[in-house]
Each structure stands twice: as C-alpha cells, then as structure tokens.
C-alpha cells in the first residue's frame, strides 16, 4: 500500500510468456484448494491454530487462524472517506478483528481509535512512512500515535522512486537502509515492531549489476530492528518467488500482504487469480508469519467502484478463513 500504488502498477511491465507459464504452473493446484476451501465453510475452529500460522506436519493441514486475518484499509480508502463508521462496521460484520491502517481518514489518532473501538476492531498495524531525510522527532510522534492505537506493528510502506524516476543506484538504497535501522531502533524502544513493505522496485538490478534493492534491505538492516512485510503480489510482479525469499529470510517475515494477480498481471481478489497462496503459506512458520493482511490496490479506480472494496474484503476474509494447506 501507498499513495504510489497505482503509479507502481502503471510502471510494471506486462507479464512475459515464461513468467505467466511459471505462475500458472505454480498455481495449478490453487483451483483445487479453492474448491476444498469452499466446501469447508464453517469448519475452522476459532483459536485452535497457533499464532505463528502456516505449515503442516504429521499429516495435519495448516490453516490461517481467523483472529490473525487483517485488511489493509488502503483497500477501502474511498469507502472510508465517505463513511468511516459504516465501513468499519461492515468489516467487523464480515469477521475481521484486526485492521492495518493507512492514515486516520482525516481524524486524530484518538478519534480513529474510538471509531475502531465502537465496532470491536483493533489496528494492530499501520503504514507510516519514515521521514526523508530522517527526523527523529517526527518519527517519535508517529510512534506515539501507534502506541495510542495499541498497535504492535508500524510499517514503512514505499520506497524505490525518486525525483528522477526509479532508483537504480545502490548508494541511495544503502542510505535508506541506514534510516530504516534508525527508525527500527526508536520503534523498538517504544515497544513496537518496525517493518518494511515491498513493491516491485526492490527487485530491479542496481548499478548495472546483479544486486537488487531487496538484497540491500535484507542484508544491511538489522533483523532485530526491521522485519519484512511481504507483499505477495508485488514480489511476484517483480519476478521473484515468495518461497525463495522466505527461505532466504527465515523468521523475519512477520506479515503477508495477500493480494492476487490476474492473467494480465493486474490485481484480483484473493483466491481468484494466479498466485498459489497455499504453497506459500506452507512455509509460514519458516517465515515467522503472524498476520495475513488482505489488500487490493485498485479500489475506486475505473472500472471498479469504491463499493467493490467491501466485496474484496469479504472474498479475501472468507478465502483465508477456509483455506487448507
């Protein structure tokens, strides 16, 4: 999520034939998983699965605990702007107990928390950009808002584009990684876990070589200070395999953004597209996963209308709640 998500999608190249074949091959079992999920409606026992969900052993099936399903409110930005209280109530009616905020919809943090409290929702996470250039006092105010909300996570939502377009030099990425460490250290002192959310820019090659921005983020930030919020759509759009990244960053991926991809390389509701989420979630314990966050970037962007975001939230929640892997 970020205000640049639509621009990020516009800048992404169309899927190549080989990438599409690979996605389709990896997703071949997805349809069977969706069918099994549809047949298992109501079969999930609340609270029965561990918090660090994902993976299975001894022949038992893994599942996503319902109380660890969240939704990124950027998905519903237009609906929230029109009717904050009604939209939050609709999310609670679907079954959500957690949300990840993307700002406070013109309210103060206290007012926003009151609206959440009124319908029984918690903002366990929030997208808040670290100041650039880094300013500790400004960041401390953001941390104070997160503590007021009762959040556990605070996540930087976007990096990779500057005044001259896509950032292709490693020096800029290294400087940003240093700022992430500073932000993470202050967050830790405030009792919060600080994370970084990717798009596809992280997977461009830098300086004409083979190293990527994601390499720098993962290698030059302290795992104790900066966890990874892996956006599964944008990882895939960047031509990387989420499972490979999980194996390379064991225990560090606390949050998944769960958004699907259609065969044109654009957005789709979770479980309706090409991405084989079951295959990824099998590695959830290896990742260190705690939250599964539904998101779709194109809410309110033609031909979609703002009300479609509620459908996205409902489809995504039901898909995750009933998926077995």
Notes on the structure:
The protein is an alpha/beta fold. The chain is built from 14 helices and twelve strands. It has helices at 5-11, 17-26, 30-39, 77-82, 84-94, 109-119, 136-149, 170-189, 213-220, 232-237, 242-248, 277-281, 284-287, 308-322; strands spanning 69-71, 98-101, 122-127, 153-156, 161-162, 165-166, 193-197, 227-231, 253-258, 260-261, 267-268, 291-294. The protein has an eight-stranded parallel β-sheet with strand order 1-12-9-8-7-4-3-2. The protein has a two-stranded antiparallel ribbon with strand order 5-6. Strand 10 and strand 11 (267-268) form a beta hairpin. Helix 6 runs parallel beside helix 7 and helix 7 (136-149) packs across helix 8 (170-189). The longest helix has 20 residues, at 170-189. The chain is globular and about 50 Å long.
Sum up the structure in keywords.
325 residues, alpha/beta, eight-stranded parallel sheet, 41% helix
Uncertain regions spanning at least 5 consecutive residues: 18-22, 24-52
The class by helix and strand makeup works out as alpha/beta
Give the strand order, joined by hyphens, for the main sheet.
1-12-9-8-7-4-3-2
Percentage of residues in strands? 5-15%
CA-to-CA gap between the ends?
26 Å
């Amino acid at each position: 999520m970020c205000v640049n998500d639509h621009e990020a999608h516009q800048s992404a190249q169309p899927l190549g034939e080989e990438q599409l074949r690979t996605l389709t091959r990896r997703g071949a079992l997805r349809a069977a998983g969706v069918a099994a999920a549809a047949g298992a409606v109501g079969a999930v026992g609340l609270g029965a699965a561990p918090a660090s969900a994902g993976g299975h052993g001894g022949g038992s099936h893994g599942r996503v605990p319902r109380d660890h399903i969240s939704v990124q409110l950027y998905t519903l930005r237009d609906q929230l702007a029109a009717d904050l209280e009604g939209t939050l109530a609709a999310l609670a009616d679907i079954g959500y107990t957690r949300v990840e905020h993307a700002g406070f919809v013109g309210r103060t943090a206290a007012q926003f928390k009151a609206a959440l409290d009124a319908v029984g929702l918690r903002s366990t996470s929030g997208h808040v950009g670290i100041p650039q250039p880094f300013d500790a006092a400004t960041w401390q105010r953001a941390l104070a808002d997160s503590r007021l909300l009762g959040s556990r996570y605070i996540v930087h939502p976007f990096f990779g584009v500057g005044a001259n377009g896509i950032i292709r030099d490693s020096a800029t990425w290294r400087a940003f990684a240093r700022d992430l460490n500073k932000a993470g250290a202050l967050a830790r002192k405030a009792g919060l876990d600080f994370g970084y959310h990717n798009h596809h820019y992280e997977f461009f090659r830098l300086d004409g070589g083979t190293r990527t921005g994601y390499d720098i983020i993962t290698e030059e930030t302290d795992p104790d200070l900066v966890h990874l919020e892996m956006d599964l759509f944008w990882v895939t759009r960047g031509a990387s395999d989420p499972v490979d990244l999980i194996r390379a960053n064991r225990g560090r991926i606390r949050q998944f953004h769960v958004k699907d991809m259609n065969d044109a390389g654009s957005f789709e509701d979770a479980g309706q597209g090409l991405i084989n989420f079951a295959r990824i979630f099998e590695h959830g314990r290896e990742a260190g996963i705690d939250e599964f966050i539904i998101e779709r970037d194109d809410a309110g962007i033609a031909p979609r209308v703002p009300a479609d975001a509620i459908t996205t939230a409902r489809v995504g929640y039901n898909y995750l709640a009933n998926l077995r892997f």
